[in-house]
Design a protein that fits this description.
Elements (H helix, E strand, L loop, with lengths): L2 H37 L8 H51 L45 H34 L11 E2 L4 E4 L6 E4 L2 E4 L5 E3 L4 E9 L3 E7 L5 E10 L6 E2 L4 E5 L9 E8 L2 E3 L2 H14 L1
Antiparallel strand pairs: 1-4, 2-3, 4-11, 5-10, 6-7, 6-9, 7-8, 8-10, 8-11, 11-12
Helix pairs in contact: 1-2, 1-3, 2-3, 2-4
């Protein structure tokens, strides 16, 4: 994982926290301002109707503001959760690459850079200025009606900030979701590892291009990452199998299934049930044969699985 991406995630974490703090301050300012504006009511009979009308307006506007905040809050919470998940994954990936050859995790490539659309900037320039943040202080100044209008402007500003953060985070989070390594058969025991072994049919030394997970027939097989199904059906030697293409041309393969639930061209999400364990093809018993393929070559899936296993332990 490049230092540039790690800085990106840390900066987005700080921005998300700042947005959450801004919303908290805004709610506090609104509550205080409206309370002050409505508590000091005039007792003169001639102004009672005006006061009631003012109160009705303020209560109605406060209801709109409250509804806007209710709508904004889950967006901020979801963004914050995504950024935290990205940051934690970056931290584990960076630590794995720095661990050297002791764990084998250094064989895992970094997350691919997102391909952000190019924007024409012919003749662009000017001073490098910090971004303008939403001015929370204005919500506590002026008469109640002015404070309410200011609050509306601040909420609009916060919505824009969250939308920009979501756009900037989306490509990175999509790459993370398309990064293989999540356990495709939780609960099953490990079988034959990746590498040379004695072939179970011939008894001779042969190369095993994946990892086996042994377990009962019918056990759900999960997509290790999000992607597009590029093959689903019978494959020589693999029996009923599924191939899923992920980011940067990476492919995961799931072999010897008893039946499959996806078809070619379909998009799947991480953890989605795509098939069931079986013993089709060149197999001696029910198990899942799992492969990670990079640039057409089958590589050891263990470092990928180890990375997400460590991430799962850290989150729990």
């Amino acid at each position: 994982m490049s230092r540039q991406r790690i800085r990106f995630v840390e900066a987005r974490t700080a921005r998300a926290i700042a947005v959450i703090g801004a919303i908290t301050l805004l709610v506090a300012a609104l509550a205080l301002g409206i309370a002050i504006g409505t508590m000091f009511a005039r007792s003169h009979l001639g102004e009672e109707q005006t006061l009631m009308s003012r109160r009705s307006y303020e209560i109605e506007e406060l209801g709109r503001i409250n509804a806007a905040l209710i709508e904004l809050t889950p967006r901020v919470e979801g963004l914050s959760a995504q950024v935290s998940e990205l940051h934690e994954f970056d931290t584990h990936l960076k630590a794995a690459h720095g661990a050297g050859g002791t764990s084998g995790v250094h064989d895992v490539p970094p997350l691919p850079d997102s391909e952000e659309p190019a924007t024409s900037l012919d003749g662009a320039g000017g001073p490098a200025l910090p971004p303008r943040l939403c001015d929370i202080g204005r919500a506590a100044a002026g008469a109640p009606r002015q404070r309410l209008k200011s609050a509306h402007r601040i909420i609009d500003c916060l919505n824009d900030e969250v939308s920009q953060l979501q756009t900037q985070t989306l490509a990175h989070y999509a790459a993370y979701m398309a990064f293989p390594g999540r356990n495709p058969a939780p609960g099953l025991r490990s079988g034959s590892p990746y590498g040379n072994r004695l072939d179970p049919f011939t008894g001779r030394l042969s190369f095993h291009p994946g990892i086996d997970f042994a377990g009962p027939a019918g056990t759900p097989i999960l997509a290790s990452a999000g992607g597009r199904v590029i093959a689903a059906g019978e494959r020589n030697g693999y029996g009923i199998s599924v191939d899923i293409r992920h980011s940067d041309g990476m492919v995961t393969r799931y072999g010897h299934a008893s039946r499959i639930f996806v078809k070619t061209g379909e998009f799947v999400m991480p953890g989605q049930v795509i098939a069931e364990v079986g013993s089709t093809g060149r197999s001696t018993g029910p198990h899942l044969h799992f492969e990670v393929i990079v640039d057409g070559a089958q590589i050891n899936p263990s470092p990928y699985l180890a990375l997400f296993r460590r991430l799962s332990h850290a989150q729990s």
